[in-house]
Amino acid sequence: MMEAVAASRDNQERDTVLSVRGLTVGFGSKIVLDKLDLDVYRGEILGFVGASGAGKSVLMRTVLRLLPRRAGTISILGADYDQVTDAERISLDTRLGVLFQQGALFSSLTVKENIQLPMREYLDLPQWLMDELAHLKIKLVGLQPDAADKYPSELSGGMIKRAALARALALDPALVFLDEPTSGLDPIGAAEFDDLIAQLRDTLGLTVYMVTHDLDSLFSVCDRIAVLGEKRVLVEGTLDDMLACDDPWVKTYFRGKRARMIVRSDRQSPTESD
């Protein structure tokens, strides 16, 4: 009980970047999210997980105002989207970066032109400056300079992910949403992408909201984890909190056959054995 009170106090003292309260989202007669609450704190990498079809992407898209909600409030960077002016809403939008699951790059545009799209929409910059900024973002995500003039069809899956991340960082956001960022990548590529996300968080001071199924990502780079189930957040906290949770789905996910090797290697010392 004392630990729960202490954890609650710690959370209250942290700077909340995203706050969702009483969120209800539905399609026709089907309710996907029901009175959902969630907080994301400044500087953390939050891993958001749940069963397929539970509504993880629906929640992210609702927060981004790509889907309507039936009830609830969404506050980003201390501002309630429903209470701000149009100018303030546009300013808030520039503080957000999004990497969609398949990258969502425009196939008819080069990598450089894709990165410059948000700049053209929100900023009034000369072309030479946008070119310099685009090349800076390309370097920041670990792509070679010649990637700037390539089209998405000329890129590997890993390069597409990095190019899409560069576009998400185009306006120097404070909060970045990543939808399954390591899906489709081989284990080495996924691990490198996880390392990149952690490095960018540390160097740029980002807050990261990451929807993922990747257990390795949850174990290696996420500071906290939130689990979606039964149309709400079932449990949130550290990896230890997930491992201690009695919910059947959470237990299967974090201690099931696919997770067992990761849990064992993470928890055992070199002298321990089964």
Features:
274 residues, alpha/beta, 4-stranded antiparallel beta sheet, 42% helix, 23% strand, disordered C terminus
Ordered list of secondary-structure elements with their pairings:
Elements (H helix, E strand, L loop, with lengths): L1 H12 L2 E12 L2 E12 L3 E6 L5 H8 L7 E6 L2 E2 L5 H8 L2 E4 L11 H12 L4 H14 L16 H12 L6 E5 L7 H18 L2 E5 L3 H6 L3 E6 L2 E6 L1 H6 L3 H8 L1 H11 L7
Parallel strand pairs: 3-8, 3-9, 6-7, 7-8
Antiparallel strand pairs: 1-2, 1-4, 4-5, 9-10
Helix pairs in contact: 4-5, 4-6, 5-6, 10-11
Structure characterization notes:
Helix 4 (111-122) packs across helix 5 (127-140), helix 4 runs parallel beside helix 6 and helix 5 (127-140) crosses helix 6 (157-168). The protein is globular and about 55 Å long. The chain contains eleven helices and ten strands. Mean pLDDT is 86; it is low at 1-12 and 267-274. The protein has 274 residues and is of the alpha/beta class. Helix content is 42%, strand content 23%. The chain starts with a helix and ends in a 7-residue tail after the last helix.
Summarize the structure.
With 274 residues, this protein is an alpha/beta fold. Helices cover 42% and strands 23% of the residues. The chain contains eleven helices and ten strands.
Element order: H for helix, E for strand: HEEEHEEHEHHHEHEHEEHHH
Can you list the strand order of the major beta sheet?
A: 6-7-8-3-9-10
| Structural category | alpha/beta
Strand content range: 15-25%
For the biggest sheet, the summary is: 6 strands, mixed
Poorly predicted runs of 5 or more residues: 1-12, 267-274
Helix content: 40-55%
Instruction: Please tally the helical runs, counting DSSP H or I stretches of 4 or more residues.
Output: 11
Based on CA atoms alone, the radius of gyration comes out at 19 Å
Got a strand count? Answer: 10
Distance between the termini: 33 Å
Q: What is the arithmetic mean of pLDDT?
A: 86
What would the principal axes of the Cα set say about the shape? Answer: globular
